[in-house]
Amino acid sequence: MTNARxxxxxxxxxxxxRCLVCRGWCDGGLCRHCxxxxxxxxxxxxxxxxxxxxxxxxxxxxxxxxxxxxxPPWSRVVTGVDYGYPWDRPLADLKFHQRLEPADxxxxxxxxxxxxxxxxxxxxxxxxxxxxxxxERGYNQSWELARRLARALSLDARADALFRVxxxxxxxxxxxxxxxRNLQGAFVVTPRHAAWVRGARIALVDDVLTTGATAQAxxxxxxxxxxxxxxxxxxxxxxxx
Length: 241
What we know:
Layout: H1 2-15, H2 32-38, H3 65-69, E1 76-82, H4 88-96, H5 103-112, E2 123-126, H6 131-137, H7 141-153, E3 156-157, E4 162-164, H8 176-182, E5 187-189, H9 194-197, E6 201-209, H10 213-224, E7 229-237
Parallel strand pairs: 1-7, 2-3, 2-6, 6-7
Antiparallel strand pairs: 4-5
Helix pairs in contact: 5-7, 8-10
Protein name: ComF family protein
InterPro entries: ComF/GntX_DNA_util-trans, PRTase-like, PRTase_dom
Family: Belongs to the ComF/GntX family.
């Protein structure tokens, strides 16, 4: 019986593990069926990350009307998937339940949109947690995603390029304007990484983009510190509410 179990364990290891969605055996995160069903690419606005209802045809930087009229502070947002089934559960597990196993599978749709940046001069940073939130969660899920992206794309990364100077509390349930006020002055560039940020193209990584208040506050901090461009990379974008 022990030998049979050992053989089964070795076979499963060689097979690569279970699909994140259907739990069938596959060679890495998502099986072909679930990848085709849930991880397909959608044409999205470069400003807000929302999918286009009707893709633009005028070549105006692939932005929706709202983002053309009121451009966000970042140069581009890149999103892997829409927030919702089947991504919401593994994202919550990663963020709140100290489960790192889904991270690589969650990143696959995003990585597919970033392949042209492999080995480029983009530098990778993450949205930082407060000390209180870091103690509560045990790790920063945004850094766990950022370092995997940086490794896969052969990019330079820093876990502490940004520092959260105060605990802003949970943003869940706050209105867009309340989130923005709550995050004013929440971030600074770590002094020892000031030269790393200055003049650079920075990719700011987070798990989910909702109202964009956190990413906007962090982007403005990086730009004020001299970053040439800031791109926002997120696993998932919440639908328009």
